[in-house]
Amino acid sequence: MKYVVVQSGGKQYRATSGDILELEHIDGEKEQKITFNEVLLYADGESVKIGTPYVDGMSVDAVIVDQFRGEKIRVAKFKAKARYRRVTGHRQSLTRVKVEGINDGLASKKEKKVSTAKE
Fold it and tell me: For 118, which DSSP code?
């Protein structure tokens, strides 16, 4: 099974083709295509490529499915013996993304070899 680990918004996500990921907010609209170039790891069966820090020539193609906001969390501050209590909330903006394909960079090299052979 082919999978990658990509970095987005300072976090790392494991993805395969067809996965739907919920990432930190990414600017864009629905149905817009995006590309992740920060691939940290690529695994295909028994072969594994680990980047230093990124794997050269690797990218992941994805489509923005939805822009939404996550669940509200409560943030409470309290100081003992001081009658100090504050409760606030936070909702993170998120982006739902569908992974369409993993480009390992080998396909473009093969196409170049084929085109030079025909000439």
Answer: H
Asked if residues 59 and 33 have their Cβ atoms less than 8 Å apart, the reply is no
Say whether pLDDT at 46 is over 70: yes
Provide the strand spans (E) within the chain: 2-8, 11-15, 20-24, 33-36, 39-44, 47-50, 59-69, 73-79, 84-90, 93-103
Could you report the per-residue pLDDT of 50-74, keeping only the tens digit for each?
Answer: 999 999 999 999 999 999 999 999 9
CB hemisphere CA count around 4 (13 angstroms) = 26
Determine the structural domain holding residue 69 and report its residue range: 2-118
Q: How many domains does the chain have?
A: 1
